[in-house]
Amino acid sequence: MNRRTGRLSVLRFGIEAPYVPAGLTAAGVLSLVLGFFSPWLFVVAALFLAQAALYLHTTIRGKLLVWEDLLDGLNLQGSEQALDLGCGRGPVLLALARRLPHGRAVGVDLWRSRDQTGNAEDVTRANAAAEGVGPLVELCTADMMSLPFDDASFDVVASSLAIHNIPTAPGRAAAVTEALRVLRPGGQMILVDFRHAANYADVLKELGARDVQVRKLGARYWYGNPVTASSAVSATRP
User: Fold this and answer.
1) Using an 8 Å Cβ cutoff, are 237 and 183 in contact?
2) Would you call 80 helix, strand, or coil by DSSP?
3) Cα 49 → chain centroid
4) How far apart are CA 93 and CA 174, in angstroms?
5) What is the pLDDT along the chain (238 residues), one digit of tens a residue?
6) What is the pTM of this model?
7) Following DSSP, what letter does each residue of 134-176 receive, concatenated?
8) What span, in angstroms and rounded, lies between the C-alpha atoms of 145 and 120?
9) Which residue of 3, 21, 54, 155 sits 20 to 30 Å from the alpha carbon of 237, by its own alpha carbon?
10) Residue 215 CA, distance from chain mean position
11) What is the CATH number of domain 58-236?
12) Is 31:42 a contact under the CB 8 Å cutoff?
């Protein structure tokens, strides 16, 4: 949401894993057609189409509303240095930048379109300019498992549905370890994902992070159904 206008910026941030709602919609339409031969398939069609609609609501609008609440809860002063891991086209990155008129928001990504439609560095840069925060945003092509930043470089580290894209448990643990490494003492971390949240929390606890919590984010962050409900992992570096 753009705090200056009160409007959600819903058109420039793409759709996460676009093949998922496409598949759900295709299955729903096929079931709807076949329902003329087997009426019970109308129920199946309704379930598929409802999941597709909920998925699209989450990725287009719901997650933006949730992140506004999460970032408001950080009580930022406006001069912090923030890092968004797997920033994509920038919904969380720009929400951070709007809260940092005297700070900096850095976005890291590998810019893969299979993770988000139209994911590209120039698109994110254009989004930042359109939101009026271009000078506050820096973009970096880098792997979350090996960040090109010094220890204790950031006051805030955030990530939205990115770490789960790393296919191995050791790789995901490495990304979480890197996130804590670049966080300053007293800095705050929020990692949102629909998979492996408990594992992220375990890694942070083993590394000595304080105030580690895992909490569900509700239906606004369901990717189609409760099975894919997202959770937020929060922590503070001692």
Assistant:
1) yes
2) coil
3) 24
4) 22
5) 444 433 444 447 878 778 888 898 999 899 988 888 888 898 998 999 988 888 888 888 889 999 999 999 999 999 999 999 999 999 999 999 999 999 999 999 998 876 676 788 999 999 999 999 999 999 999 999 999 999 999 999 999 999 999 999 999 999 999 999 999 999 999 999 999 999 999 999 999 999 999 999 998 998 888 888 999 999 999 9
6) 0.87
7) GGGEEEEE--TTS-SS-TT-EEEEEEES-GGGS-SHHHHHHHH
8) 20
9) 3
10) 15
11) 3.40.50.150
12) yes
Residue with structure tokens 């590209």?
Answer: 120
Amino acid at 38: S
Residues 6+ apart with CB under 8 A from 75: none
| Backbone phi and psi for residue 93, each to the nearest 5 degrees, phi listed first | -55, -45
Tokens of residue 38, six digits = 């087997």
DSSP secondary structure code for residue 88 in this structure = T
In this structure, are residues 175 and 166 in contact, taking their beta carbons and an 8 Å threshold?
yes
Contact partners, residue 224, CB within 8 Å, separation at least 6:
20, 21, 24, 51, 52, 54, 55, 58
Residues 148, 199: contact at Cβ < 8 Å? no
What are 117's two structure tokens? 């439609």
Q: How far is residue 129's CA from residue 133's CA, in Å, rounded to a whole number?
A: 6
The rounded distance, in Å, linking the Cα atoms of 53 and 51 is: 5
Pairing of strands 154-160, 81-85: parallel
| Alpha carbon distances (Å) from 218 to 9, 60, 232, 235 | 21, 16, 10, 20
